[in-house]
Records
---
Amino acid sequence: MRMPNQEEIPRQAVIVADSFNSRFKPITLDKPRCLLPLANKPLLDYTISHLVDNGFWDLILLSCSHADQIDEHIKETYGGDRRLTIRNMALNSENCESLGDAMRELSVDGVIRGPFVLVTGDLVSNMDIRSAMEAHQSNRARDKDAIMTVILKKVMPGHPTRGQEDDLVVCVDPETNQLLRYQNANSKRFEYELELFNLHDCVDFRYDLMNTYVIICEAHVPTRFGDHFDIQDMESFIKGITGDEELCTETIYMHTLGHSYAARVCNLWTYHSVAHDIMGRWVYPVVPDRPSQDQYIYRGDGVYLSHSAKNYKAQIEKNVIVGPESTLGRESTVSDSVIGTKCEIKSGCVIRNSHIWDEVTIERNCTIDGAVLCSGVTVKEGTVITPDCILSYDTTVGPNITLKRGTRVTAPVRSPHRTESECSNDSEETRCSEDGNSPPSTHEVLGVDHWGQVYESDGEDRVGYCCGIRRVLGDRGDVLLSDSSDSTPVPSEPDQEVGFYGEVLDSFKAGYLIRKDVDGVLIEVNASKHAYNVSVWDQLIHVTRALLEMSGSVAQFRSHAEYFAPLFIKLAGDRQTETVILEEVATWAVEMERVDDVQSILHSLYDLDVLDEGSILAWSRGCEEDIKERIERFVTWLEEADEESSEDD
């Protein structure tokens, strides 16, 4: 029997399995986001395992898109566990378009018996929820109006797992941890009424916290959504409760995580980042070689090989997972990538920063760089797939083509009166379009043996991949991981960028003029970065642009680069950051009609150890043809030098 004043401990968990956005299109046209594989395991399984590890055996799924597939997965994966109860509430997709709609459906269903934990179906975590539940009970003991405890984690801006929707300014009472205000940090202006400071003796403003979207709720929280039909998301709900202390007596508290890991896979940027964290064992004990799974052998340096995988003398570098029954051909190289089940990677291939799902075939001498290849994809011989490309299920590209950066390929649109086999037997001139007529350029874009069509975005679902960084490999901002207004990291505001760039250029010119210690220039640049709230990637773009802009000739650039090289070495130093520099050089050269100078500029940066030969060679395979022609001699020289070095070794 429960004591009179004892608060009930939450034992139910509600998983919001639908994302209610289109950030993963065209992949999610065929499968719900929560069932997409992350490090060769469905996302939803990470969430369920985490809840079970924390003692939650009564789970309720709120699903909308592809609810039948979720049902099937639950039955196949968890049907034999009699301890676990999972109810999938399949919501009507026409009536349910947001989290708010899903919570209103939950309020009328009557399945909530008491306090519960609300999580998203894309959560990867090793946190102990029990401490947060105890904090919630303590909050309720002293404040009967407390309806929620939001679990936040200390994550600084710019961290790979912190997206734009996680850029928060939180106002909190430090003595009680009561949330007083909750606001997205994208706003340029923050206003707080004086009454807020009159009601609370001490107020903290925090910009170092990220919402894990693990929330402990009282049983009547879904009903509160039902009372306000205009509330569509959790941010609006929290802002509504905390925004008016006079009219709303209910309160929300926060609980801050310690060193535990918690991140949502809410876009393709975090998809790559979280996968790397799993391989790097930052989410331990959530690792591929977890004893209960017994599928992988850990080889160190983030490398996991399945017992049944076959490696025919391929070079496997750091952060790699190779799934069951997959084969790696001779003289192939794999780094920072996940390879699924029954994949065939033939000889001479290079795979980096990519996610290769199940039963994918990559023929000889292909390069896959920063891409997602869904199950059943075939890449024909000699094909180069550049960053940000997405090949959806069962598509084929090639042979001997370079897929333009950011291209997304999906299965052909078929008439409802024609079968898949009939469509596949069409001639190349009539394949892969709604009316049976393929555009003349389809062969050039996807290759003569292609099967699929280029997916045309409607704007809202435009995503970039960028290998886990914000602005790598993109035309100034248009391949960011920004598919909606509240989705992912975006460039700094234009006014901020202009102001920041002006100060960087002034610091560069003044520093070079008086030959100021370059560390002093870096201090000034970093101070400006924080003053204008500019991301680390935009900072690198603008310092590169400043170096280029102040150089009227190749000779001047060489002199300036010699002086500023130590600064760039401190800001860059790995494949991703060096690619930022390379892309900005190319963008500037095209804009200023100085494409002929690119080879000399890159040669100077290489000689000064700002750029590594591996970064230059990898980038050169996917750069614009005009640039590629201009740097051909330099690239050939690097390749020959690399071969000579290998022979000497």
Note: The mean pLDDT is 81.
---
Amino acid sequence: MEVDVAIVGGGPSGLAAAIRLKQLLPDIEVCLLEKGAEIGAHILSGNVFEPRALDELIPDWRDLDTPVRTKVSKDSIRIFTEKSSYEIPSMLVPKPLHNEGNYIISLSDTCRWLGEYAENLGVMIFPSNPAADYILSEEGCIEGVITGDMGIGKDGNPKENFQPGIEIRAKQTIFSEGCRGSLTERLIQHFKLRDFYDGERKIVPQTYGIGVKEIWKVKPENFTKGYVLHSLAWPLDSSILGGGFMYHEREDQVHVGLVLALDYKNPHLNPYKEFQRYKTHPFIRKVLEGGEPLAYGGRAVNEGGFYAVPKLTFPGGMLAGDCAGFLNTAKIKGTHNCMKTGMLAAEAIAEATEQGDIAGKELEDYYSKFRNSWVWDDLYEVRNFREGFSRGIWFGQAHAFVSYNILGGRGLGGKKPQHSEDWETTGYASEHKPIEYPKPDGKLTFDLNTNLQRANVNHEHDQPSHLVIRNGMENKPTEFSHKLFDGPEQRFCPAGVYEFHEGKLQINAQNCIHCKTCDIKTPGGYIQWTTPEGGGGPFYKGM
């Protein structure tokens, strides 16, 4: 199949790129590939949404029937202790954390709406079609992607329903896979996109966090439409960058979750169980008690910020959205930047198309557009956020207030992360105390298997595992991870994919919710996340 532009990933960036392309060049052929069973099925976010990019992309969106409806009515940041909490006065809150004019949304539902909008413009959308590999020409140019095979058994042999992957050949390919995209990581290495200096930024390694989240339907008397809560400290200790959130969206539905940086040291820490404990705090409990949990999910997030965004272009393709790391960690928002970078990529393609053939060309004007856009400014303003927290959460908060409210983003000291992967910060099990977590009560807190049912996760069981132990690392799980670190993958995975039995690893790939945390935090980096058979994974709604 031949098209003008192929887009890998049906998140906010890929969809914005597709829409913008058809707005600028109505006759251009645009194909968008999505690994989920439908647009939105694999999309999960907080999400307090800054509508800046949507205002530019679809100026009349407020007049349309969209899922972006709940405007922020009240904004609060609280410091949690185990039994109480203290609100930070608004005047002391760092400027990026103010949410006036923003909206509480379900990003999965918003992407579904954007997908319909794109299809109405003539974008060809193919769900259940993961891009399993890229096509590289003899000249070293990206010429498109190949979708994954269907109908391969666990033994690696074709089954009766076997269908080979399809080559999607394109003049330009936009990779917008989201955080830790499997093809993106290979492209970054192949084209050395982190070995890049633009005169102002020397690229540093990306760092990550893990977010886990539930949606609850609460009692009407416990619901405050438009209320946004962010919390600091408990249940996390002061050495861990992270915090909780609770967003009151619509129809008595509340989004509640916990995000923490993956460079934590204690291998016994369990992000899922920390989140369950978070819900027992009196301030959260009083909202959720008597309510009903509706959905659960988890996802890795980029936290490297301004200095971790790699070079964005290479011959025949470009990176857009969260696969390149456009999350504003200080704001705890990235959708606006992801959408805008998708639009900038589309504009670079449209302008180059009008000048001549774009096949295999490196459209470096896209990077120039990024440098001259408000996305650059948005990230530059908080460029030292991560470094401030290198001295702990309390210095980090003070640093954030002074840096962004007074110094225009300049830092007060601290250092950029010195590790190339977050797994490198994990300490030996013998050096850290095991953590005892309270047992779930089945009403407010839940065991993982119960919550997984609310993620609607499903994979074809008779297929090879998409969670692959890298070549030459077959002994890493037992001799390195389990022996030295007590197998932290059996705790950091928010889907119970990894188990150790008598020191031997068992991978329950059918449980995977595609969060990508194992690709980041597994000791030694022995796991490579690859795409499973199309349509597999979670099926999120309202997330």
Note: The radius of gyration is 22 Å.
